[in-house]
Write a structure and sequence with these properties.
three-stranded mixed β-sheet; seven-stranded parallel β-sheet; alpha/beta
Length: 306
């Protein structure tokens, strides 16, 4: 990892990856970020503003990275907008993939996906060879991932795909649908009956494991990212959060009424996921920042996540 391009470095996961790489003195960094970034953060690195869907690809060839970490995703607020965004992302990823095959075929690529592509796992452990059955946001977003899966399956590039579960961090879903919603309504909401399983990871550990995989694991695989054995039922998650926020817990069985225009999110919170991996080496030589899900809640629940 001497020359690393981070696509989406200003995002939730990408910004944490950037912080880690910035501390590695022997690593040269090139960043592709949106135009609303704090430029001071990127002093001393190669910064380009734009979207991965249409930026000048010759910039990559000039930098000639040995590693590309791609954590950018075009989002949409509705199903139609997500579909449009995903098609745009698909075309952008296909364009980037084809350019790399022709010009930098030996580059290592790590693409950040998500675990909603596995669907509702109920109480079964979900590993990398589990069936793909996208639900919620992943129904559309999975489309943008396909160019990298294609390259991986046909060994056209050295592609690794990582799938993290519920990531807890500053400014994530954790604030939008639990902390901020709790403050708005005066109670901690449990979506559904609360008996569904959640697999959790701290955003710092998510970024750290991504770096660890690039350094120590073979490309050409899909890797599930999670904190080992940190599965929690949503009801227990909300009860712990209620203790921290000093609020009551309320089960919202008709949770679609709380967010009538956000059915995809509700479907996600109703799903159940217990992650496992066929590649335990992803944890080798890695020291977790937060091994316990309760510590993750304490770390972020009382800070401003907006």
């Amino acid at each position: 990892m001497k020359r690393v391009l981070i696509i989406g470095a200003s995002g939730f996961i990408g910004s944490e990856i950037y912080k880690i790489l910035l501390k590695q003195e022997k690593t040269q960094i090139m960043v592709l970020a949106h135009n609303n970034v704090d430029y001071k953060i990127y002093e001393g690195v190669n910064l380009y503003i734009g979207s991965f869907t249409n930026f000048n690809l010759s910039i990559i060839k000039n930098f000639y990275p040995d590693t590309i970490i791609h954590s950018a995703r075009i989002s949409g607020s509705t199903k139609i907008k997500r579909l449009y965004a995903s098609i745009k992302g698909y075309l952008g990823n296909k364009r980037l993939r084809n350019y790399l095959i022709k010009n930098i075929p030996n580059v290592k690529i790590l693409y950040v996906s998500g675990t909603l592509v596995y669907g509702n796992g109920n109480s079964k452990k979900i590993s990398e060879n589990s069936k793909i059955n996208p639900i919620s946001y992943a129904r559309e977003y999975f489309i943008a991932e396909k160019p990298w899966l294609y390259a991986q399956e046909r060994n056209l590039l050295q592609v690794s795909i990582v799938r993290p579960p519920w990531i807890i961090g500053n400014g994530s879903w954790f604030y939008s649908f639990f902390v901020n919603t709790s403050k708005k309504y005066g109670f901690v909401p449990v979506y559904g009956n609360g008996e569904n399983w959640m697999s959790l990871i701290d955003v710092e550990d998510c970024a750290g494991l991504i770096i660890n995989i690039i350094k120590n694991c073979e490309p050409g695989h899909v890797y599930n990212l999670y904190t080992p054995e940190q599965y929690v039922k949503q009801i227990d998650f909300c009860t712990e959060l209620s203790n921290i926020l000093e609020m009551d817990v309320k089960i919202i069985k008709k949770s679609h009424l709380l967010f009538p225009k956000n059915k995809a999110t509700i479907e996600a919170f109703h799903s159940s996921l217990m992650l496992a991996t066929n590649y335990p080496e992803i944890f080798n030589n890695y020291s977790f920042k937060n091994k316990n899900w309760k510590d993750m809640l304490k770390k972020y629940a009382l800070i401003d996540g907006n």
